[in-house]
Amino acid sequence: MDKFSYALGLGIGQNLLGLGAKNLSVEDFSQAIKDILDGKEPAISHQEAQGIVQEHFAALQAKISEESLKAEKVFFEQNGKKEGIVTTESGLQYEVLVKGSGKKPSASDQVKCHYEGKLMDGRMFDSSIKRGQPATFGVNQVIPGWVEALQLMEEGDKWRLYIPSELGYGAHGAGEVIPPYSSLIFEVELIEVL
């Protein structure tokens, strides 16, 4: 075994799995690499290859998005039936964990909050609590689900928010951390309206 060749194959294989390219014809994949390394004319043009790859990944993303939206719909329908869950007209859901009695912010206010954000599978993607520092920001400078919830909360409130993707980061997601069409769960404590 040529360990260098095998090592390159491992890296490429892991990258392909990460992209969602699981059902490859290894023979055709290997032949394309061989043709390039041997200086042979490829069986298809680079332009055609690029189009094929783009079309494949667009279809894969559309399928993933469709499945995510179906799962989201089921979750919010079931979650909305639980005791203590409030569903707003927009589809935002929340439950009151601690009831405050202070000032309510408006869209133009600044607020100080502690929060933790998780994906539906429980993976935490952000936490002011872990950073040990509350976050300060404008009510209208955050995702739509937060903008709505914050204006319903009072100082001292601690709520769990269930935010559908359309009130979160939508079709774009947020970098590597939040995939497209992700529903989000936040625990938010409104410490102070500034």
From TrEMBL:
Transmembrane residue ranges: none
Entry keyword Chaperone: no
Annotated protein name in UniProt: Peptidyl-prolyl cis-trans isomerase
Pfam name, any one: FKBP_N
Family: Belongs to the FKBP-type PPIase family.
Domain PPIase FKBP-type, residue spans: 108-194
GO molecular function: peptidyl-prolyl cis-trans isomerase activity
UniProt key word Iron-sulfur: no
Any one Gene Ontology BP term: protein folding
Native organism: Bacteroides coprosuis DSM 18011
The EC number(s) this enzyme carries: 5.2.1.8
Keywords: Isomerase, Rotamase, Signal
Catalysed reaction, written as an equation: [protein]-peptidylproline (omega=180) = [protein]-peptidylproline (omega=0)
Taxon lineage: Bacteria, Pseudomonadati, Bacteroidota, Bacteroidia, Bacteroidales
